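2024-03-11 09:14:02 INFO queue: dequeued item WHG domain-containing protein, len=204
2024-03-11 09:14:02 INFO validating residues
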Amino acid sequence: MAGRREEKREDLKARLIEAARERIARDGLANLRARDITQDAGCALGGLYTVFTDLAELVVHVNSATLKALEARLTLDEAKAKSPTDRLRNLAQGYLAFAVEHRNLWKALFDHFPPATSPTPQWHLDEHLFLMDVIAEPLAELQPDMPPEDRAIRARTLFGAVHGVVSISLEGRFVGLPLERLAREVDELVQTIAAGAELRRQGM
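2024-03-11 09:14:37 INFO prediction written
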């Protein structure tokens, strides 16, 4: 009997996550409403709160699924290249493509600020670390003598540079780049950073 109840709970959880994911993908995080989600999932409004503490916790699970999809995309793109510079270039282009193709889900990763009463769980914070790890690996080949802690900081810097350009451009900020130039400029940015790292490694 307990097993059956757990099955139903897990089924409801999956339906709520999928309903919330589809709503965010279509309408954006700012327009997410618990009543709409439960209606789409085919359950009563109270059903959401038998599975999740609140709406913020549900969004965390949607973002977790988005991160897994992003990781699969970046891992695939990185594997297509052999040189560390080309791997970094592929990572940047894969990140940009994912952001363009799944704009609202991608934005939700950075726009979700849970209330103090429902802080982001550590397991979800840990899920973000893959972004730094996949960048740090080719950086280690470009600058093998760099201490791991410095490499971790450099990976964050490189991610911040690419993310910043992508973000302000997709949000249509006045300093952003037109979409038709964005991929090219991101590629030039990564190549410039990688070339600098290569020169430092060679002691030039």
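2024-03-11 09:14:37 INFO annotate: The CA atoms of residues 142 and 198 lie 6 Å apart.
2024-03-11 09:14:38 INFO item closed
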